[in-house]
Specification:
Layout: E1 8-9, E2 19-24, H1 29-38, H2 41-47, H3 53-74, E3 83-85, E4 91-93, E5 102-108, E6 111-117, E7 122-128, H4 135-142, H5 145-152, H6 156-177, E8 188-190, E9 199-202, H7 206-209, E10 213-217, E11 223-229, E12 237-240
Parallel strand pairs: 1-12, 2-12
Antiparallel strand pairs: 2-6, 3-4, 5-6, 7-11, 8-9, 10-11
Family: Belongs to the P-Pant transferase superfamily. Gsp/Sfp/HetI/AcpT family.
Domain 4'-phosphopantetheinyl transferase N-terminal: 35-115
Keywords: Transferase
């Protein structure tokens, strides 16, 4: 259950293939001011809704990074990147770049992931692994029956990480669809570690699942993630911003 491709430190630029960017979200004072300055007025207003400074910083950092990475792909200024929400509330590009590419954002703990695709729907999810007293009970409430059975067969020491891996694989797929809670998690099945990440069925159809690719990601110690893309046999390139990206030039 490892990355198939190494993370490569790079600067944002043209998008030639599906790519997942890893973003460090821990900010110093200079980075905090730079990220806030990069946001739109609406985005800055949203940061005030978080009670903890840590959460405000992570929102500002992840959305400033999203603007920077999209700007690199679009050959635009980060401040000019505009968004709208579709009928299900999923953010999309607006203005001259509407429909130009697909993107998705996820963050947990101090890690953010931004997935971009030039030609297919894409979704990404990352979770910091935290103890869950009874993850099997949670799985029985939301997961497909085959996933629950596979989790039950695992040794106790492997269960928590496998649960989070399953969760991120499912969330990445649902986020790629853009349907949110309108698409229940038990309508489709994914593989369970130690099996390689894969979408196994959608509404019982293995043929429908073969139109998608799932990729397991390990972006940082204590975190697990996955990316889903609507294309068979596709692997995303893995890129990482520099640790001090937030205080550097856009």
């Amino acid at each position: 259950m490892t990355d198939r491709v190494a993370w490569t430190v790079a600067a944002p630029g043209p998008l030639h293939e599906p790519t997942v960017w890893r973003v460090p979200l821990t900010l110093d004072e200079a980075g905090r001011h730079a990220c806030l300055a990069a946001l739109s007025d609406e985005e800055r207003q949203r940061t005030t809704r978080f009670l903890r400074q840590e959460d405000r910083d992570r929102y500002a950092a992840s959305h400033a990074a999203l603007r920077r990475i999209l700007a690199g792909a679009l050959a635009a200024d980060p401040a000019d990147v505009r968004f709208l929400a579709d009928e299900a509330g999923k953010p999309e590009l607006d203005g001259p770049w509407r429909g130009h590419l697909a993107f998705n954002l996820s963050h947990s703990g101090g890690v953010g992931l931004i997935a971009l695709s030039p030609d297919a729907r894409i979704g990404v999810d990352v979770e910091r692994i935290r103890p869950i007293p009874d993850c099997l009970s949670l799985a029985r409430s939301y997961f497909a029956a085959g996933e629950v059975s596979a989790l039950q067969r695992l040794p106790a020491e492997a269960l928590q990480t496998a649960f989070y891996a399953c969760w991120t694989r499912k969330e990445a797929f649902v986020k790629a669809l853009g349907l949110g809670l309108a698409f229940p998690l038990d309508r489709f099945a994914v593989s369970i570690p130690p099996a390689a990440a894969a979408l196994l069925s959608i509404d019982g159809s293995a043929d429908a699942a073969r139109a998608w690719s799932l990729q397991h990601l390990a972006p940082a110690p204590g975190h697990v993630a996955a990316v889903a893309i609507e294309a068979p046999g596709r692997t995303c390139a893995l890129r990482s911003l520099m640790p001090d990206w937030s205080s550097g030039p856009a």
